[in-house]
Structures are given as C-alpha cells and as structure tokens.
Request: fold
Amino acid sequence: MTDLLPCPFCGGPAERHEIDEPGDNFGGTCIVCQRCGACGPVHFDRKENLVSSWNDRPPLPSRAARDVLDERARQAIEEGFTAEHDDQHRRGELTFAAIAYLMALVNPNGARTWWPGWSWSWAWFKPQGPRRDLVKAGALILAEIERLDRAGRGG
Ligand SMILES: [Zn+2]
Reply:
C-alpha cells in the first residue's frame, strides 16, 4: 500500500496484515513493519482508522535534538548533575557553563573567562570540538531552563 508511511522505529516498509489465525484478534487487521515487525493497533469492523492510526504520529526528534537530550541524561547519570544538584546553582552557573562551551567555538582563549570557576572545578570544563561543544551547551541550557521551571521562574 502506497499510503502507508515507513515504520516509525526502523524506517522499514509497512503493509496491511489481515489476522486469520484463531484467537482474540481473528478477523482484525493491523499495519505491520516488514523489517522489524512493529505493528499498530488491531482494528475490527469498518477499520476506517486503520491507516491513520499508523500514519498519525509525532515527528521523531532530529539527531541533534536527541544528542542534546542524551547529553542532558549523561550529565545527570555520569556526572551527577541531577535536578537536586542543578537547583543549588542559582547564580547562573549553568548558563555561564553553556556560554563557556559556546565561546570555545569562536575564541578558545576567552572561553575560560565564562566558566563558573567560582563554583566548579576547571577539571569539569572539557571542550571537545565544535559539534560536541554545541551539544554540551544545549544540554546545559536545557538544564538551566528546567531549573528555572522547577523554581517557578520559567516565565
Ligand atoms: Zn520497523
């Protein structure tokens, strides 16, 4: 069927599957990924929403957005920068740290002037190249927004 979008998980082609095996779903129809086997909900009777239940989905976040979210999780899990930790930094440390990584892109010598050295050891400042530093800055900005939201100052 040409009106079916690819699988949201693996991008594989999808096909309509009529369930003719005995059981609770006998007579039903679902959309199944031909590559990974993921299937949408089983529809019965008129099945008028069969295709839309497979095609209507939120768009997947981009690789860049996933990388920022992954970095945010890594900072919390591996570095211990949990919500409780971040909540202790009310003087803009997270923002300054993000700026330091952004500065590292354009002026490596200026980056250290932005690192919140009054609170954090220099050992935590680890520039690793343009894209990685943008991801780190993005994760720090996300952490700061979340901190402000928890404090009721999200605006
Ligand atoms: Zn699939």
